[in-house]
Amino acid sequence: MRLLVVYPYIPFPVDRGTYQRTFHLLRALAKDHDVDLLALSEAGERMDQKPVFAEFCRRVEFVRFEHPKWARLFPDRLLNPLPTTIRHWLQPNVAEAIQRFTQGQQYDLVHVCDIVMAQYFFNQLSHLPLAIDRSRVDLQFQLAQREAMSTGLRQSVLDWENITKLKRFERRIARRTAVEVVCGPDDETFIRQRISRDVPVQVITNGVDLDYFVPSASMGPRATEPTVLFCGAMDYAPNVDALRWFFAGIHDSLRQRVPDLRVLIVGKAPVAEVQAYAQRPGVTVTGGVPDVRPFYRQAWLQIVPLRIGGGTRLKIPESMAMGTPVISTSIGAQGLGLRHGDDLLLADTPETFVQETARALGDPSLRARLHDEGMKTVHHRLSWPMLGQQLSDYYAKRFQN
Questions:
Q1: Total count of domains within the chain
Q2: 39 φ/ψ angles, rounded to the nearest 5 degrees
Q3: Which domain holds residue 50?
Q4: Residues 186, 115: one domain?
């Protein structure tokens, strides 16, 4: 098959969660199909990464991209039917670049990442089937964010206005789409209940690069003190909210039960709120690091206290592949099909999160069982080549002439 792939960013180096998914699925698709890649480069960043993709893509083009300024509520935003979060990715030079890049080419399928890129194909190449790989379902994410996070009156009005328009836009996208590829069954259920009963949906969970995330890649020992890790982009609202919940209702109680507890917060671009947690006893905020694997190996547990859903968290299969057990909320682990007490521990209230974390830190045999079962699970069904092959086979069966 001939595939046109359009991404809203250049996913290399793979230093954000969504980059892991888009990069590895792209490489897997290119093993079986001829792939042309067009990706946006915000402010010209990562333009030098073209040789990485040229190794497995037939044609590669990067397009410089600048987000427009956020529109004022009145008149620009209120009178425009497009959700502002979608308009933020709409630029004439991108549409022109797509037209130039595809001129004279014959494709069987257009594959884009997220609905912000799908909007370019209402008019362009409208005769071709469109597949959307959704790192998260936008409407689901924004509804969960509004429910979990308290905001002022002005922000609440802006959120309501965007969500109202997004509901219509999601349904319009569904009518154009040949398949929506989602991260888990929860996403599929949400789409069926809130967006479309008819649009085809294919679940491809998130996975892990088992050649990179291996315990032997970091020879350092576990920390001598009981240590928990939270890993992720620290300017991402769900991660900031997760830490807010952890430190508001869990950390102090956990320290009462585990007085020598250490907390590692590892990830790029920590906002001021996250940086401030370093003032607490036993808490380290590293900022961006060149390699997260040594921190996985130091930690006794990874904590995933997420309250905002949509998509799945790559930090969980990465941690399991590194042999570091995980304790997560159900929302944090949604879509991965993991078993409480075998693959990981689940806790959804501050009290149970404290209880389960303290229990695991104090029980080496429990951590050993979680280590063993977690490793089996990621190797059995959560490797990127395996997941990418599932998507490639689905496309070939569904769209190949």
A1: 2
A2: -135, 150
A3: 2-207+384-399
A4: yes
